[in-house]
């Protein structure tokens, strides 16, 4: 069994941060990220792609098929821009992520997958800033838990760092 409360909380925090950044936008121009970093829409598109990959891995295990988990497509600039275009705008990205969060939580809820399914090892490759973090099989449970404990909170902080008052405070430290 998997307690989905931490996953729900992590998605809620990310979406709250995204809305805060989007609302900080008006009437001022969008907060600009530091050079080489993603803007809010790019962060959200990346999270949407990661969420979709996680849903695919969970659904694959539930369907009894071989599955892998690889985040490289979620780092691809062209794919990120296409995801933004398909969602339409920042609000569309947030709606998409909200729906993906609900789907992922439903798929991993206590009655949806057995402990054996959650323990299924999936070949996993995870990169961050061109650095290989993981290249080994991981239990599906650990993939979902890592999303809730590391990936989503990291992107929540990344979004909040785009706020003008927060960026200025961090620059003066």
Quick synopsis:
The chain has 173 residues and is mostly helical.
Structure description:
With 173 residues, the chain is mostly helical. The protein has a single domain (5-24, 37-171), classed as Four Helix Bundle (Hemerythrin (Met), subunit A) (Up-down Bundle), CATH 1.20.120. It is 61% helix and 11% strand. It contains 7 helices and 3 strands, in the order ααβαααββαα. It has helices at residues 5-24, 40-62, 77-87, 90-108, 115-118, 140-160, 164-171; strands spanning 69-70, 121-128, 131-139. It has a 3-stranded mixed beta sheet. A hairpin with a 2-residue loop joins strand 2 and strand 3.
Biggest β-sheet: strands ordered side by side in the sheet: 1-2-3
Note the overall shape. Answer: globular
- What are the low-pLDDT stretches, counting only 5+ consecutive residues below 50? 167-173
Give the CA-CA distance, first to last residue: 43 Å
Give the secondary structure arrangement, pairings included.
Layout: H1 5-24, H2 40-62, E1 69-70, H3 77-87, H4 90-108, H5 115-118, E2 121-128, E3 131-139, H6 140-160, H7 164-171
Parallel strand pairs: 1-2
Antiparallel strand pairs: 2-3
Helix pairs in contact: 1-4, 1-6, 2-3, 2-4, 2-6
What attributes characterize this protein structure?
single chain; 173 residues; mainly alpha; Four Helix Bundle (Hemerythrin (Met), subunit A); three-stranded mixed beta sheet; 7 helices; 3 strands; disordered C terminus
């Amino acid at each position: 069994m998997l307690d989905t409360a931490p996953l729900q909380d992590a998605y809620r925090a990310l979406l709250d941060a995204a809305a805060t950044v989007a609302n900080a936008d008006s009437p001022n121009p969008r907060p600009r990220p530091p050079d080489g970093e993603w803007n809010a829409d790019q962060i959200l598109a990346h999270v949407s792609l990661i969420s979709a990959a996680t849903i695919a891995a969970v659904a694959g295990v539930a369907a009894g098929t071989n599955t892998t988990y690889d985040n490289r497509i979620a780092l691809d600039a062209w794919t990120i821009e296409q995801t933004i275009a398909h969602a339409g705008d920042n609000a569309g990205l947030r709606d998409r992520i909200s729906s993906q969060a609900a789907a992922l939580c439903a798929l991993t809820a206590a009655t949806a997958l057995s402990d054996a399914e959650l323990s299924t090892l999936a070949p996993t490759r995870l990169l961050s800033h061109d650095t290989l973090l993981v290249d080994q099989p991981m239990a599906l449970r650990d993939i979902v838990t890592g999303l809730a404990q590391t990936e989503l909170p990291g992107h929540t902080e990344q979004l909040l760092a785009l706020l003008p008052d927060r960026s200025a405070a961090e620059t003066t430290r």
